[in-house]
Predict the 3D structure of the following.
Amino acid sequence: MTGAGVLLASRLARSDSGPAVLDPAAFVAQQPASSTGGGVAPAVDQQAPDFTLKTLDGGEVTLSSLQGKPVLMNFWASWCAPCRVEMPDLVRVYEAHKADGLVVLAINMTFQDSVSDVQAFVKEFNMTFPVLLDETGAVAHDQYRLRGLPMSFFVNRKGIIVRRHIGAMRGEQIDQFVGELLQ
């Protein structure tokens, strides 16, 4: 059992039924062949596609400017029940490892969310890492080919994707994956 996620179609849908635990094989089998625009999601052992996004606090973050640091990119939305389940562990792991150089980028699906809901979510979970706003879906759909929410990419210090995870991660998984990333 790996976790739960909300499937993405050409338009993200609200999940009011709460998190469902899915068999990983069944989850992948339900995925569309490709996201809008066609193409394939970036794979493990490939360079992470670069992007620049606005942050909730008015700044900007460019992924390539973080080369040399381990990065956990987590795509999420305020209405995503599985995102709510995993966020406390993401916050916990970040607080435990930020002194080790860990960078967490919480990339919100703002094109399917509202800034006021994002702000409330960030406050509720006391998220102190950068919250990026994907206002057009260009990063989520065109560059990272999201298949579900939450979806996370673990990027090493050289900018290479070392792990991709679809669905909510359990605390132990996040601990393990971040531990591997920090080595």
User: Anything to note?
Assistant: DSSP finds five helices and nine strands in the chain. The longest strand covers residues 71-76. The chain has one domain: 41-182.
